[in-house]
Design the sequence.
């Protein structure tokens, strides 16, 4: 790792300070202490001051946002009941449909598509809660990457060191929150694309249970594994956003939720959450072997903090067949992603992202037997993972093997083994999302990371986001996990 | 898995032809590098014991039960 002195953190902009925490801003907006228009203009000023350096945004819609913010303020003036996120500025990864705009999904080839006729369900959910859409965010092309080194639109840069990656594929979503441009963003996560940028940018991220949130109106990558979820600059804000996003969608065949299960009321009692009796396990084996010193230190800090607050913490817990699960996730991803883009790979591949086009082609060429074996393994895997959670409420492991690396890194050496860098950033996230478990990515700052963040995955059993959020809140309140 | 080493480049050429992907030699070699990594993962997966009754995880549903 380069010494701290070589870092290029985002410059201070006292004239355009970072936005406050999401939960603080919600309180200010609800009370009328801050108007929606003022909150929006503060974010606009911050974006304009910082995005030339960060490159998080690919689209800005300030005029529409100002109209929406003014409507919130008019509603307040008339005494109308405000939504729970009324006036909160937010932005979305550019694979979310926005009515009237072209959904790029990080690509050049999609730029010629017609504008979306309606916004994605999750965008509509946030708008229905009163939130104000500011713009769209950079990503790896078609979500196939962990670095957001997008050749067409430029790399998103890590606000903690502009020479380093923001992570991906939702890199713009992580970088925008870390840069204080907006307090809330949306992203997608197939193999780690919320958790990796959360880890590298030092922000809070939630990958909910597979099938919890509607995916309708977003550009697909891998139907079998695609998840959507929020990023935020504090944990209570993350939970508020998650609650607003919930909507059992009968028109999305991938939405398995049958009811809304709000978590914010469970987290909003004053004081630290009661962790007495919470069974916490620290994953070992594969997850330890594929983590560097900073990532290991982060998990150790989190485990000790939860133990100090009354949780029963055990170390040395083995996750079932993680290496095989990662292989299966890799094969399903490559096959479905490659097959989805096959028509465009035949005719437009010169316009694809050079960093991922060969992987898309390779996936399209995979024998069907590999794919089917992976999907049959997944049935066995679900049973094994559910059985593990009979003994544990929450499991901990790093979100990335290492903190953010310099843009352009090609190889990762990890405990004596060399890996191609870009796929390796998903080593620790892929086995978890393949099981569909909910995960909060918590931002930690271990000494070994020398001033950079690295995330810890707080994992719960499917449909138990409440447990992961409760443990994550305890980490935030202990001061162990936080934004910087 | 065959006990013979897989000729990944030949697989790339054959499957690309079957799918109507006209790859030039340089492209095919680059793709073969990626597919070679996937071969190693597929071997890991094939070696994992699975009961014949284990079904694929994605189950088609004809529609909601009336």
Sequence:
């Amino acid at each position: 790792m380069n010494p701290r002195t070589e870092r290029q953190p985002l410059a201070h902009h006292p004239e355009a300070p970072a936005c406050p925490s999401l939960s603080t801003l919600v309180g200010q907006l609800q009370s009328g202490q801050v108007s929606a228009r003022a909150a929006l203009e503060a974010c606009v000023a911050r974006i304009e001051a910082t995005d030339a350096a960060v490159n998080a945004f690919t689209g800005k819609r300030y005029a529409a946002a100002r109209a929406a913010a003014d409507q919130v303020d008019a509603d307040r003036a008339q005494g109308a009941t405000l939504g729970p996120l009324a006036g909160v500025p937010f932005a979305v990864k550019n694979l979310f449909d926005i009515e009237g705009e072209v959904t790029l999904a990080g690509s050049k080839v999609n730029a010629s598509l017609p504008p979306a006729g309606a916004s994605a369900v999750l965008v509509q959910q946030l708008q229905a809660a009163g939130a104000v859409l500011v713009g769209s965010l950079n990503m790896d092309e078609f979500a196939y990457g962990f670095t957001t080194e997008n050749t067409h639109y430029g790399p998103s840069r890590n606000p903690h060191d502009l020479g380093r990656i923001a992570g991906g594929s939702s890199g713009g979503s992580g970088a925008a929150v870390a840069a204080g441009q907006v307090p809330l963003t949306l992203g997608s996560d197939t193999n780690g694309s919320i958790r990796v940028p959360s880890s590298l940018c030092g922000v809070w991220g939630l990958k909910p249970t597979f099938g919890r949130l509607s995916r309708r109106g977003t550009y697909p990558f891998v139907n079998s594994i695609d998840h959507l979820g929020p990023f935020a600059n504090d944990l209570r804000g993350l939970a508020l956003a998650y609650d607003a996003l919930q909507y059992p969608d009968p028109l999305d065949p991938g939405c398995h939720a049958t009811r809304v299960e709000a978590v914010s009321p469970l987290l909003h009692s004053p004081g630290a959450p009661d962790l007495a009796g919470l069974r916490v396990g620290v994953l070992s084996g594969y997850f330890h072997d594929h983590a560097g010193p900073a990532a290991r230190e982060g998990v150790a800090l989190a485990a000790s903090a939860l133990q100090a607050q009354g949780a029963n913490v055990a170390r040395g817990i083995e996750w079932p067949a993680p290496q095989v699960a990662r292989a299966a996730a890799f094969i399903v991803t490559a096959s479905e992603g490659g097959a989805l883009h096959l028509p465009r790979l035949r005719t437009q591949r010169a316009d694809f992202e050079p960093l991922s086009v060969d992987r898309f082609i390779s996936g399209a060429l995979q024998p069907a037997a590999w794919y089917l074996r992976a999907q049959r393994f997944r049935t066995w895997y679900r049973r094994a993972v559910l059985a593990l959670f009979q003994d544990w409420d929450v499991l901990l492991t790093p979100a990335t093997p290492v903190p953010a690396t310099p843009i352009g890194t090609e190889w990762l050496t990890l405990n004596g083994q060399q890996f191609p860098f870009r796929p390796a950033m998903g080593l620790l996230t892929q086995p978890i999302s393949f099981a569909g478990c909910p995960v909060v990515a918590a931002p930690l700052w271990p000494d070994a990371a020398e001033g950079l963040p690295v995330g810890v995955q707080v994992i719960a059993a499917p449909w138990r986001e409440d447990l992961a959020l409760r443990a994550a809140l305890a980490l935030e309140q202990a001061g162990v996990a936080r934004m910087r | 898995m065959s006990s013979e080493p897989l000729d990944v480049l030949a697989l790339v050429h054959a499957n690309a032809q079957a799918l109507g992907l006209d790859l030039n030699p340089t492209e095919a070699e680059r793709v073969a590098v990626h597919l070679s990594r996937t071969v190693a993962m597929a071997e890991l997966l094939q070696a994992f014991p699975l009961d014949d009754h284990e079904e694929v995880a994605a189950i088609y549903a004809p529609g909601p039960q009336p």
Remarks:
- Chain B touches chain A through 31 residues (CB under 8 Å).
- The mean pLDDT of chain B is 90.
- Residues 11 and 32 of chain B are 8 Å apart (CA to CA).
